[in-house]
Design a protein that fits this description.
This protein is about 35% helix and about 15% strand. It has 12 helices and 7 strands. The chain binds iron/sulfur cluster and FE2/S2 (inorganic) cluster.
Length: about 290
């Protein structure tokens, strides 16, 4: 057990300024920053505000700046930081709401702008799907690295362009745009490339790569932005070939006749039959245990 100081830079919405609070907390091995904050709320100060949900690096809601670096509070172990004093701040480049809680409206608005969903021409099939879209392992491999995002927003907090240009689409939105551009199920190449090909789109990136460094899922938005630039350049040079659009899987036969031939007709299951089977099973189990 070791005592560590948590120094919180808290946003006060009433005075519209930051205040600083310090708490000394007892730290056990394995305790995370989020555990420390929960302890403070439980035993020291009920007014401390932070955002968290899953506590396992999945929901993306506990992002904050830990000793100057954007991190997930639930994935960061206190003792791994090897510091006696740990400074916690709300994420940079977001409007603060209260204490360590940031406003994600602008982040999700940018997400909405890039149309983060599959767009197809067979609208009827998309609305009332009858079959699956075939996708090969190779096609899946193209985008899966960019599809692990948990929308934690750490990449925006580490991005120097986002800090100076609030209109910049930003690393996560551009990466997600690329993820759908190269998805073989998506038809909307033209719209997606137009959205990306803007001063506030891919051309706003200065390739600082802070986004990829802090991403807790290894998504690499900086790489996605460069690949997106390549596609835009190809298109302007008329070298863009597009991609093969995924077909619908063939329909399943109404009955798998070969199975019925091998095992006879499928049994008609009733409650009585289920109970009978359960009784048979009980008898067999009793005999086995005797
Ligand atoms: S790209 Fe990474 S850092 Fe950015 S929002 Fe997604 S998971 Fe978080
Ligand atoms: S609480 Fe869900 S990612 Fe940290």
């Amino acid at each position: 057990m070791k005592n560590v100081i948590f120094r919180l830079r808290r946003w006060d919405p009433d005075t519209k300024s930051y205040i600083q609070s310090e708490y000394e907390i007892p730290v056990r091995r394995g305790m995370t920053i989020l555990d420390g904050l929960i302890w403070i709320k439980e035993y020291k100060d009920r007014t401390v505000s932070y955002r968290a949900s899953c506590r396992m690096g999945l929901c993306g809601s506990c992002g904050m700046v830990v000793n100057g670096r954007p991190m997930l509070a639930c994935e960061t172990q206190i003792l791994h930081l090897e510091k006696d004093v740990i400074t916690l701040e709300p994420l940079y480049n977001y409007e603060p709401i209260r204490d360590l809680v940031s406003d994600f409206h602008a982040f999700f608005e940018k997400q909405r702008m890039i149309k983060p969903y599959i767009i197809r021409e067979d609208i009827e099939e998309q609305i009332n799907p009858t079959r699956e879209y075939i996708q090969s392992k190779e096609e899946w491999n193209l985008y899966i690295q960019f599809a692990m995002c948990i929308t934690c927003g750490l990449c925006y907090s580490a991005c120097p362009t986002t800090s100076t240009d609030p209109r910049y689409l930003g690393p996560q939105a551009l990466m997600n745009l690329y993820r759908f551009l190269i998805d073989s199920r998506d038809y909307a190449d033209k719209i997606r490339l137009e959205i990306a090909d803007q001063v506030d789109g891919v051309w706003g990136c200065h390739l600082a790569t802070g986004c990829s460094e802090v991403c807790p899922k290894g998504d690499d938005p900086a790489l996605a932005i460069q690949l997106l630039r390549r596609e835009i350049l190809r298109k302007s040079l008329k070298l863009y070939r597009g991609k093969r659009i995924t077909d619908l899987a063939p329909p399943l036969p109404p009955k798998n006749k070969s199975i019925y031939r091998a095992f006879g007709e499928a049994p008609k299951f009733t409650i009585e039959k289920a109970e009978e089977k359960a009784r048979e099973f009980d008898i067999l189990e009793d005999e086995r245990l005797r």
